[in-house]
Amino acid sequence: MNILHMMASFRSNLFAMYRGDFKVIPPPSSKSAVWLCTGCIKYSGFQVGFLVWGYIVMWLILFAITFILSMMIDGYLAELVEEIKTICQTWPGVLVAMVLLVLQGLLARFVFLQGSASFLRLDNRNSYFIFAYFMFFYNIFLGVVSCLLRILKAVVIGAVFLARLDSSTLPRRFEAWDSGLSAYTGFVHMEAAHTHPVLNVFVRLLVSLNRTKRLDGLARALDVHITSNDSDINDSQDDQSCPRRNPVGVTAKFKWFLVYTLLHNPQIRLYRQGYIQSVKKARQDGLRVPISDRPIVQFDLTQLRTAQGESDQAIPSPGQDATVSGPATHLVHVPSSVVVSGGTSDADDIDVDMIEDLEDIEDSSGFLRDPMGSGDTELLMPV
What we know:
Layout: H1 2-18, H2 33-88, H3 91-112, H4 125-134, H5 136-160, H6 179-195, H7 197-223, E1 224-226, E2 233-235, H8 247-264, H9 273-285, H10 301-313, E3 329-334, H11 352-361, E4 367-369, E5 377-382
Antiparallel strand pairs: 1-2, 3-5, 4-5
């Protein structure tokens, strides 16, 4: 029964703390966090120990009751009845005490207080002081009897509720000395701090908002793409559900990443969309296109045709050049003075390392060679 009552009391105390009601359990500000955490740690062990002692005390009380009953059954009943008769001879005193207690209550309700006795407001002050003066002597004897009853009540209640940690047998001012109540208080505060429904919902909302922000940022990052002509980075408008927050910052960030990547990896300039479209346009017009990553719109086709005629005159004779089978090819002259490792190159040329990479990739559509043995490299591309 004590365990069931204690579980119900714990539930009511926990809900009261959820509401901010600290009438039974002291507020957390009155105790330190270390004190509450220590009490929570000790609660489970203390509860078992208090239950053991509660069982022992209840067993002793039941033993005393059964012992008295056995004495009455074995022949002491007559003597016990005589003692009860002796005590009952004092019934006038008991009756007077009960009358005085009832009389004080009735006079306080209907004579001394104003109205319906809802508020503490004296009406007949003179009568009140006279009655309190004459009742002083009688209340002394009532106090003696009341003290004996208090001791008996404390013993009975302390024995019955000894196993319960949610109720202290000490006065309110001395509850700090009750180690069992301290452990229970720490346990309840720990549960309320980590299972408060409003706090849990608030924290989950914050976590959900943070996750949504990170997912939106990732979606915006994936929507950004490089344009095919001017290599500018624009935000895609396909996913209208993702809000666009500060697209300028995202574009600037990706531009910086692009520049940083190209500076440290110059060979990948050949694989950018600007250069690929330039090659396609040159194949359509039969032109020799300088190796560059600039868009096709920046090339003057008339100048390229003029430059093609001049470069055809500089092509070596068939006897000096290696025979190339397959489709017709045009040569792109690349000086060997191009800086190779991580440096800057001419806008119309390409690094030697870039050409070596193209030799492995474009073995079916073009090849590299140095027919004159001068250290300069020529790139052959089919028209």
